[in-house]
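DOMAIN: structural biology
WANTED: fold as tokens
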Amino acid sequence: MKKLLFAMALVASFLTSCGDDEFVLDPAAVGTAYYPLELGAFKIFNVEENTYLNNTAESKTYQIRETFNEVFKDQTGKDWYRVEISRRETETDSWRIIGVRTISKDPVNQSSGSLLIKENNRTVVGMVFPVLEGKAWNPNAFNTGYFPNPDDENLREEFSYKNVGKPFEASGTTFLTTTTIVKSDFENVLAESRSYEVVSVNQGPVHRYYKLLNFCNSNSENCDYQADEVYIVDGIERTETMISSGKVDL
């Protein structure tokens, strides 16, 4: 009986009443508030990037701006938000457009929903709702055959949630209610891959980390392999931290 009452209370926390016969998901409880979509909203990120080639690192810093500058409907009537991505090397430089992505929230019913992100001709399931600690999903649900053998557990990509509802601190700024989307976290003798994104309630993404390194090993060519040393053949490590946000009239 206690388990039944708990389950009923959990469902109730996800729903708010809009009338005698209509219920909608509470954005804060279900997690849709972690990724708001608003025309005219923009964010600026400081980026620190290290690139590696033949065990030599090159460091650079720059800024990225992401602006929701258009909304349109697809053939099914679903809203898609166009995000223009710009870059500048320093705060005094002019912005130059480097890319575009489109984002949509799949219709969210009383039990589930998802956030879809299209970029570089690939649609990724960026989030699933409701947001729950440890929940995992396939981000390539719309990319059949994206991997050589999607039935192989070692080749399947998986996203998951951790630190749901916890505060997150970056560059001296504390975001009180966040969730971390873990996109990759593994390391072996061949490579290291770690990637995550932190989203904050009513703010969206506020911090991103991406790392992919390929190591020299006993089967590698054109590198000085030493069993007791880490030799990075190539790779990249990048950190993006939001420093400001706002809204412009379009």
